[in-house]
Design goal:
Blueprint: H1 2-20, E1 33-44, E2 47-55, E3 71-78, H2 81-87, E4 95-97, E5 103-107, H3 108-113, H4 116-124, E6 133-137, H5 142-147, H6 156-170, H7 179-187, E7 194-201, H8 203-206, E8 220-230, E9 233-238, H9 240-249, E10 256-261, E11 268-285, E12 288-304, H10 313-341, H11 348-355, H12 357-363, H13 367-372, E13 375-385
């Protein structure tokens, strides 16, 4: 009897496991879905227009000639993004699959209106992975940006995604903002969000597949400037020459290049920043906030376009001083521009919040005004290396 009960219990367990463990219960066949790589969000007539860049499987083979764009763009309008997405089923036989989303692009009108509502949908959707980048297109629509035919990668969205990552690592004015970074900034006190800007050059030709079948390309896109936000609304732009300050102070620079006029000589020299670290020290004096920034930078000489003897210590020290002054000027101009706009993108307020929480609660309501008048002290420790196969310019090197 006990043996019978044991066998029956085992069978019941197996049956239950067969019901519960059903394998990939949520799997989707590839011929039933459209893989979305990029999403454009525009505001048109007080409605959201959503534009999805979808992979065209028939054009993905690298061995076949490109007859048309490797992606298809679907668009629809509604009062909410969720409605607009569902309306796309009226023009596509496949379900829009968002798990591989790489880029979300807003037009300026939507960014000025506020991006919390669109982001609410993206965070609630269980298919969306929170690892995509965001940007604001300047002077064009987000629909144009996701329709643009990129010159390098087969998939335009992947081209933008990779280009932004590479640009941030090698060019300080560019900042790749991940959706997680944005969400953290929206939740914290004393720090405001930023998004990188995109410009589309020669747009009419950039929307045609001919743009990638000829060399040089007729059109391209360019990451330029950073959009400055107050909470979730775009309120201004910091252009390339001043946007370096944000990436330096935020410790987002792994490498960058700058050029400076040669001391006591015609021409310029270029240096490459290979290490940068900024320590922020909030202080209170006479009941007013002050921030001290200790900036430690190491750089290599990359190019010399003037007649100079870099073996001479005095000359080399003058070059190092010129590079240091250039960096100081970049930081000052960037901070002043952010103060002029009135958005604490550097997180000075957050530093006070952490170190002086009681005082911060008194300042929190009018921090914008405090930030605009905030005294920022710079302590720049710049070290320039003598590296490379040659020391002096080629025309001044001894001939052998």
């Amino acid at each position: 009897m006990n043996s019978y009960r044991s066998i029956m219990s085992t069978l019941i367990v197996y049956i239950l496991l067969m019901v519960i463990v059903t394998g990939c219960w949520s799997s989707k066949e590839l011929n039933e879905i459209s893989v979305v790589m990029a999403m454009g969000i525009d505001t048109v007539d007080d409605q959201y227009e959503i534009s999805l860049q979808v992979v065209d499987p028939s054009q993905m083979s690298r061995n076949r000639a490109m007859e048309r764009s490797p992606t298809i763009v679907f668009s629809s309008r509604a009062n909410t993004l969720f409605e607009a997405l569902r309306k796309l089923t009226t023009e596509s036989s496949r379900k829009m699959y968002l798990s591989h989303l790489k880029f979300v692009i807003f037009d300026e009108d939507t960014a000025k209106k506020g991006i919390k509502k669109p982001l609410d949908f993206l965070f609630r959707d269980h298919e969306v992975r929170p690892d995509f980048h965001l940007a604001v297109v300047r002077g064009s629509s987000a629909k144009d940006a996701v329709t643009f035919v990129a010159p390098t990668e087969v998939l335009p969205a992947m081209d933008m995604y990779k280009a932004l990552n590479v640009s941030e690592k090698t060019w300080a004015p560019t900042s790749a903002v991940n959706v997680k970074d944005l969400l953290q900034r929206l939740k914290k006190d004393g720090i405001e969000p930023v998004l990188t800007g995109i410009r589309l050059n020669n747009l009419d030709k950039g929307l045609k597949v001919d743009n990638v079948t000829k060399s040089p390309q007729h059109a391209n896109y360019l990451f330029t400037g950073i959009g400055v936000f107050q909470e979730d609304r775009l309120i201004g732009w910091i252009e390339e020459s001043k946007s370096k300050a944000f990436t330096y102070i935020s410790n987002r620079v792994s490498s960058s290049v700058a050029s400076v006029m040669c001391p006591n000589s015609d021409g310029e020299f270029a240096f490459e920043v290979i290490r940068n670290n900024v320590k922020m020290k909030p202080e209170i004096k006479n009941n007013e906030p002050i921030v001290s920034l200790v900036v430690e930078t190491e750089a290599n000489i990359g190019e010399v376009g003037c007649d100079a003897d870099l073996k001479d210590d005095k000359t080399f020290n003058e070059f190092q001083a010129a590079a240091r002054e250039e960096q100081e000027q970049i930081l000052k101009e960037g901070i002043e521009k952010a103060q002029q706009i009135g958005s604490d993108i550097f997180g000075f307020g957050e530093a006070f919040h952490q170190r002086f929480p009681r005082q911060w609660h008194q300042w929190r309501g009018d921090w914008k005004q405090k930030f605009q008048k905030l005294e920022v002290k710079l302590d720049i420790r710049f070290h320039l290396n003598r590296v490379g196969k040659i020391t002096n310019p080629i025309d001044s090197e001894p001939q052998h």
